[in-house]
Amino acid sequence: MRKYIIKRLFLSVIIFFFVMLIIYTLMRCLPTSYIENVARSKAQQPGSKSYEEWMAQLTAMYNMDKGILGGYFYWLRDFFRGNFGDSWYYTIPVIEEFNKTVWLSFWMGLITLFFELIIAIPLGIIAATKQYTKTDYTISVLALAFISLPTFFFIALLKLVFCVKLGWFDLFGLVGRNYMQLDAAHQFLDKCHHLVLPILTLIVISIGGLMRYTRTNMLEVLNADYIRTARAKGLDEHKVIYKHAFRNTLIPLVTIVGGSLPGLFSGALFTETMFSIPGIGYASYHAMVGGDIPFSMFYLAFLAILTLLGNLIADILYAVVDPRVRIA
């Protein structure tokens, strides 16, 4: 196992190198240029240097004169030294803006994952154990509806019903207008109140796929020979389903849970932007639109590392869930 982990870590470093090279190349090709905007703004000031002189100075300052490959190696060197630079859009250190926004997205993602697991997995098991019944059809239709539901449409629908018609929630923002007049406990409750619709959106659009995935894998396991043998021996149906069948259904589900690790920190770009929730998805959206290469590169590098780590954890957990899965 140790040899396998070392091999996977080495492979992950190679994958990370080429993934970030592609991302850096795309970032350099963005139509939005922060440097051009700053150079144009400074050139318009009285007695200032020309636009071309500012462009040359700023380009050299940010290592943009080294070409794509040369600039990438400069970025890679600084990244592994822990020098992430300053955000061009937010004008503060990248790591500071990241810390300000990532934890809100983390708690939203963690709450979403919790409800996704406790709702989707039991419903998927129920649909599989009651195959071709009204219960199965109802759960399957709901799952397909949630999978097919566009995020922006569902958010607009929630806002129309709960914000405009009923007036229960604000249309935008994390806090209300009277937030500063509240004590600490009520400030916390005010934030929770404003996060109800964003979290509800994330739960609804995420449970459909896991419900279908659980149902499909549960049906496959329930049709296995050893399940028929267990039933033929007279074992209790509850024990057959939840002790024998569900344990083997967990194997593919581990992949989903392991792959959800980046989602806890990546934020929800559409949801956070449409609700104006200042999480990491909202911050990264404005950084990318503003051509903020330092912040965008750090954010995407962080997600790439988490994705590679999540895949490695999922592979290791296979052996924990199923003793038959072992790496020699």
How would you sum up this structure in a few lines?
The protein is mostly helical and 328 residues long.
Features:
76% helix; mainly alpha; 0% strand; globular; 328 residues
What does this molecule look like?
This protein has 328 residues and is mainly alpha-helical. The protein is built from 15 helices and no strands. It has helices spanning 2-28, 34-43, 51-61, 67-80, 94-129, 134-148, 151-165, 184-194, 196-222, 225-232, 237-259, 261-266, 269-275, 280-289, 293-321. The chain is globular, with a radius of gyration of 25 Å.
* Whole-number mean pLDDT: 86
Number of helices: 15
Largest sheet, strands/sense/barrel: none
Q: State which percent range the strand residues make up.
A: under 5%
Question: How do the helices and strands line up, and which of them pair or pack?
Answer:
Blueprint: H1 2-28, H2 34-43, H3 51-61, H4 67-80, H5 94-129, H6 134-148, H7 151-165, H8 184-194, H9 196-222, H10 225-232, H11 237-259, H12 261-266, H13 269-275, H14 280-289, H15 293-321
